[in-house]
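Per your request, structure below.
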């Protein structure tokens, strides 16, 4: 009986949850005047158009020497912003972690800063910085850096908090200073996971860099925007294909490195 009652409650919760989601979706479609059925019906037509128009041709391949340098710039900026963000993040993470905090005030301040930067999307950073620095590579770098810093600070804090306190307490009992505890116990123990988070951030930045380029007029995102708005769909599709290949290669390299460091 108890088991039957438990499953009955689970079914009721599932039905209620599904009903609430459907009700919210229906209300949103009414407010936005969006017809889901019409959207689903247009999928075959959209797929047919993409098959006929959105593919690289011979003329698009002639623009490859112009596209590749922008793609390389985007990749380098993405990696650099993640690396510099990680350096800043590890400092704030050490000061904010409950395992290595100096005092409660610094810990709370670091956590607040991490939360603030993490909850502001990279697109918002791009638009804000665009007014200050204009459409330059610096704008894209700073937008990715701020987003990386916020995410990595939070991730690094949680990683350091999970590190066993046995070695930390042993070093403190032996009279080791704060920097010795951090450098000899915390960082070495957490370094595999920290490196894994850094690699993930590099992958994420390369994906986000395309959007940043669209908003700031830089990098590979600018090339896509330029070709797409000029109705040069074959060149735009080549840009998309190169981005996909780059992301797949970066993920493969990152996965291989993760296997080595674990």
């Amino acid at each position: 009986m108890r088991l039957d009652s438990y499953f009955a409650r689970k079914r009721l919760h599932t039905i209620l949850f599904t009903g609430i989601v459907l009700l919210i979706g229906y209300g949103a479609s009414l407010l936005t005047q969006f017809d889901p059925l019409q959207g689903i019906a247009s999928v075959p037509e959209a797929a047919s158009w993409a098959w006929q128009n959105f593919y690289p041709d011979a003329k698009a391949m002639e623009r490859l020497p112009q596209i590749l340098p922008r793609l390389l710039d985007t990749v380098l900026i993405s990696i650099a912003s993640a690396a510099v963000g990680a350096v800043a993040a590890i400092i704030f993470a050490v000061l904010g972690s409950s395992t290595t905090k100096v005092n409660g005030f610094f810990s709370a301040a670091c956590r607040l800063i991490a939360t603030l930067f993490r909850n502001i999307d990279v697109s918002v950073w791009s638009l804000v910085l665009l007014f200050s620095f204009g459409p330059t590579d610096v704008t894209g770098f700073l937008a990715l850096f701020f987003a990386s810093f916020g995410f990595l600070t939070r991730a690094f804090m949680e990683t350091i908090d999970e590190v066993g306190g046995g070695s930390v307490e042993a070093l403190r009992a032996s009279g080791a200073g704060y920097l010795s505890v951090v450098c000899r116990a915390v960082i070495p123990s957490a370094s595999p996971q920290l490196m894994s988070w850094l690699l993930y951030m590099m992958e994420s930045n390369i994906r986000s860099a395309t959007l940043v380029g669209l908003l700031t007029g830089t990098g590979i995102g600018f090339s896509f925007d330029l070709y797409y708005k000029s109705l040069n769909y074959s060149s735009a599709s080549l840009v998309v294909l190169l981005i996909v290949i780059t992301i797949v290669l970066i993920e493969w390299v990152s996965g291989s490195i993760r296997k080595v460091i674990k």
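The chain has two domains: 2-49, 58-261.

Regards,
D.
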